[in-house]
Structure formats: structure tokens, C-alpha cells
TrEMBL record:
<dbReference type="InterPro" id="IPR016166">
    <property type="entry name" value="FAD-bd_PCMH"/>
</dbReference>
<feature type="domain" description="FAD-binding PCMH-type">
    <location>
        <begin position="49"/>
        <end position="221"/>
    </location>
</feature>
<dbReference type="InterPro" id="IPR036318">
    <property type="entry name" value="FAD-bd_PCMH-like_sf"/>
</dbReference>
<dbReference type="GO" id="GO:0071949">
    <property type="term" value="F:FAD binding"/>
</dbReference>
<dbReference type="GO" id="GO:0008720">
    <property type="term" value="F:D-lactate dehydrogenase (NAD+) activity"/>
</dbReference>
<protein>
    <submittedName>
        <fullName>FAD-binding oxidoreductase</fullName>
    </submittedName>
</protein>
<dbReference type="Pfam" id="PF01565">
    <property type="entry name" value="FAD_binding_4"/>
</dbReference>
<dbReference type="InterPro" id="IPR016169">
    <property type="entry name" value="FAD-bd_PCMH_sub2"/>
</dbReference>
<dbReference type="InterPro" id="IPR006094">
    <property type="entry name" value="Oxid_FAD_bind_N"/>
</dbReference>
<dbReference type="GO" id="GO:1903457">
    <property type="term" value="P:lactate catabolic process"/>
</dbReference>
<dbReference type="GO" id="GO:0004458">
    <property type="term" value="F:D-lactate dehydrogenase (cytochrome) activity"/>
</dbReference>
């Protein structure tokens, strides 16, 4: 699906209006800032490889964002918001050129209170944690790109991550308190959204508002130990992961299961995981290590690696082998590999076992346990041996026919990669705040098909 609008032809008047702002006009830099990690998908690669913006603007405050929005509306120039570009679906790739609004210079922390922080969208999540941890709090959940990802990018394009085993997903009520948004109306304005209204712009790829400030709930800081548990049988590993995730008395941040041969792609961890073994990567509070040991015994697992929180704080952490980084490590060894994202119905390990045996190592199982409606559930970010798009679609269709829900990472269309349904509230908000459809055009199916709704 593509949009019918043409690229802007002459940006000189707009550049004149933006005099005094931090502008990037070098073609090579613009090309770099037009990309994200859509290259994980062999389907998206040919669709997005030649898409670039025409100008990058790096605002330092909300007033400058308003100025950029006004100029883009005045000259009808598309605008695509960008954080660190660590997304995987082309969320920040401009399909129709125009302005790329790089938010990384808006990186201030306005205030931190017990359980809550007010920050700007360009703030890196690791930098946020460094400051909030001084008061005993940290971000509730983060992507595996935590060291470089921005909080605004995560809210705009992410869904969950490290911490979701306890706190669920971003879309769960309570995981985002408030946002300030700049509109793209004839007279751009600032709107504050609170409560359930935040979901009008959360996970909307920046298609219906420019986020300039966020209130983010925090979690208590624990000393997070790291453990790798190995198993000779994958389904035993999966049952252990589910049992741990449902053990309310054990405080954990990450439960990540990887079927063989995925651990062979983890170069730095190979010596801790026997050949042919399946592993579960854990981040768990040091105070929970003793009862964790009892659970490991119950399931017949073996501890192959363990670090205290102090030891784990130095160098690469296990978090960087989880979530989308699992695929990153696999692709660093074999670039033909790709991935899927799957939520299993309830805690259905019977379906998981069927899929494991049905696809064997064509679809290598990588599990991330997260909390859904109060109980743990396995989600899969399977590593797939890619052959053709037709075969990939067959794999997706088979999963769906069995009741598994695929969040398709091989499309840049917002709804097609997510819940597969039009979000009327997001569409209504876009119609109000972006009447000319200038924000990240071509990504929202609801907008493209609104005449038929």
C-alpha cells in the first residue's frame, strides 16, 4: 500500500522559515537519519531501501517543534518524527520525503517523583535510568536497545520489553501517565493527553502528533542478578519459564527462553551453554536467588552462568541477548535469518510444543514471558530461516490457523503489524490534529482508507 502524494520539490522557502534552527542538509547524513532496523525483514528491505527525507531538523525545545510544524503545514511538507532509529518496522522511514524531525536534542528530565518521571522524548532510556536510580526508581520496561533507544521512540513505536514479565505491555493502563503533543493544524498548538487519552498517540508511529513531553511511571530498583539456566529439553525450559513468570514471590525483570540452536549465535555466552542445550536467560533480584535455586532443581535445570548485580552492571548484560537483540545476534552470524512476533493464546504450552515439533529449526523458538491480564504468557520472537516471501506467509498463516496471534514485523503499516484492526480513536485524533495528513504519511491504514470507514 502506498500513498499518492508526491515528494516536495522546493524546500528553500521552508528552510528560510526555519532559519536559526539546527538543520541538516547533507545528503549522506539525511540518508542515515532516514533509516531504522527494517533490514531485519527481507520483505521490507526492497520496499524501504530508497526512502529518504529531504531535510533533518533537530529541535531543542517545544517552541522550535511548534515552529517546524507551522512551516510544514504552511508549505504542505510531510514530517516524520524520529528518535534513535532503533525500531524494526520502518516506523521512522519517510515514505514521501520531506522533513525528518530528529528529537534527540530534546533530552531533559524535568522532574522525578516516587514512581513517576517527567521527561522529554529524545532522552535515552539508559540515561533516564542513571538519574532516576539515584532516587531508587527505574523505567518499568525497556527494549533490548535500551542503551541507545529514546523514551519517545519507545512509546511511539514499541510495545513491551525487559520488565514486561512484571508490568505487562505499554498499552496496559498505568504504563503511560501523560503526554504533551504538538499538532499539525494551520495554527499548531500543544495538547496534553492524560489517562486513557494517551493511547490516541501511543504506538502510533508518530502519525497523529509530535510528542514533546511524557510522564512515565517508574518501578522500584532492585539489585538485578543475572543467571543462565540450561536444559536438555526445550519444553521443560518453557515450563520452567512459565512457572517462574507466575511465581509472584520471586522478583524478576527478564525471563527469556531460547531453543537450540539459537544459543550458538551468542558468541560471548557460548562457553556457558553446552552444545545442543536450550537456555533461559534471567534477570532476577538478588534476594530471590535462593528460592530460584529451588525452582531450578524442581525442573531439573542447570545453572551455567551467574553474576551478582554489581558484576552484571559491567559490560554487556543478558538483556542485550533478549527481545529483538536475539535476532540481531543471530543475523550477525547468518544475515539470511529473519523473525516473527507471536503471542500464544493464554498459557498454551501445548500449542507451543506443537509448533516446536512442526517447524523444527526452520522456525527456532525464542520466548519472552510477559504479563497479560494478571498472569504470565509466553510470547515468541521466533528466528526464521527465510527462503521466500511466499513461504514466510505460509508460516504466518499456519500459526494463525492454530490460534496464535502474529504481530507481523514485515509490514510498515501500523495496523497490519499490530492488532490488525482500525483504531477509530487514533483516526479521529489524526483527523483533528493533522487534517492534511502530513505526519509520517503512508503508515496508517485508517487514514488511507478513511473514505470507506
Amino acid at each position: 500500500m502506498t500513498s499518492t502524494k508526491s515528494r516536495p520539490t522546493n524546500l528553500n522557502p521552508l528552510i528560510t522559515d526555519l532559519a536559526g534552527l539546527d538543520l541538516i542538509t547533507d545528503a549522506n547524513q539525511i540518508a542515515k537519519l532516514s533509516q531504522d532496523y527494517y533490514t531485519f525483514s527481507p520483505v521490507l528491505q526492497p520496499l524501504l531501501a530508497d526512502k529518504t527525507g529531504d531535510l533533518v531538523v533537530r529541535p531543542v525545545n517545544e517552541a522550535e517543534v511548534l515552529k517546524v510544524a507551522a512551516a510544514c503545514v504552511k508549505f504542505k511538507v510531510p514530517l516524520t518524527v524520529r528518535g534513535a532509529g532503533t525500531g524494526n518496522y520502518g516506523q521512522c522511514v519517510p515514505l514521501e520525503g520531506g522533513v525528518i524531525l530528529d528529537m534527540t536534542r530534546m533530552n531533559a528530565i524535568h522532574w522525578v517523583k516516587p514512581g513517576l518521571a517527567c521527561v522529554e522524548p529524545g532522552l535515552k532510556m539508559a540515561a533516564m535510568d542513571k538519574q532516576t536510580r539515584e532516587t531508587g526508581w527505574e523505567v518499568r520496561m525497556a527494549p533490548s536497545t535500551y542503551r541507545t533507544a529514546t523514551i519517545g521512540g519507545f512509546i511511539g513505536g514499541g510495545s513491551g520489553g525487559i520488565g514486561s514479565v512484571t508490568y505487562g505491555q505499554l498499552r496496559d493502563r498505568g504504563n503511560l501517565q501523560a503526554v504533551r503533543v504538538v499538532t499539525m493544524e494551520d495554527q499548531p498548538r500543544v495538547i496534553e493527553l492524560r489517562g486513557d487519552d494517551v493511547y490516541k498517540v501511543a504506538h502510533a508511529y508518530g502519525t497523529n502528533g509530535i510528542i514533546t513531553e511524557l510522564e512515565i511511571p517508574l518501578a522500584p530498583v532492585y539489585p538485578w542478578a543475572e543467571v543462565i539456566v540450561t536444559f536438555s529439553d526445550f519444553m521443560t525450559a518453557a515450563r520452567f519459564g512459565l512457572a517462574l513468570s507466575n511465581s509472584d514471590g520471586l522478583i524478576k525483570k527478564l525471563v527469556c527462553g531460547c531453543a537450540a540452536p539459537i544459543p550458538t549465535y551468542f558468541a560471548a555466552l557460548r562457553s556457558y551453554i553446552p552444545d545442543g542445550a536450550h537456555c533461559v536467560l534471567l534477570m532476577i533480584a538478588e534476594s530471590s536467588l535462593e528460592p530460584l535455586g529451588e525452582l531450578i532443581k524442581e525442573f531439573g535445570g542447570t545453572i551455567g552462568y551467574q553474576k551478582t548485580a554489581q558484576e552484571a552492571s559491567k559490560g554487556i548484560t543478558l538483556a542485550e541477548y533478549s527481545w529483538n537483540h536475539t535476532t540481531l545476534h543471530a543475523r550477525s552470524v547468518d544475515s539470511s535469518l529473519t523473525y516473527l512476533q507471536t503471542l500464544l493464546p493464554d498459557d498454551n504450552l501445548a500449542l507451543l510444543e506443537h509448533l516446536y515439533h512442526h517447524f523444527k529449526d526452520e522456525v527456532m523458538l525464542h520466548l519472552e514471558f510477559l504479563r497479560v491480564a494478571g498472569s504470565a504468557r509466553p510470547a515468541a520472537l521466533q528466528v526464521v530461516r527465510y527462503t521466500t516471501e511466499e513461504r514466510l506467509n505460509q508460516i504466518i498463516a499456519y500459526h494463525e490457523s492454530k490460534g496464535a496471534f502474529i504481530f507481523n514485523p514485515h509490514t510498515y503499516i501500523l495496523e497490519d503489524g499490530g492488532m490488525k484492526a482500525i483504531d477509530i480513536e487514533q483516526l479521529k485524533f489524526k483527523e483533528m490534529v493533522d487534517p492534511y495528513g502530513l505526519l509520517n504519511p503512508g503508515k496508517m491504514r485508517a487514514w488511507l482508507e478513511r473514505s470507506r470507514l
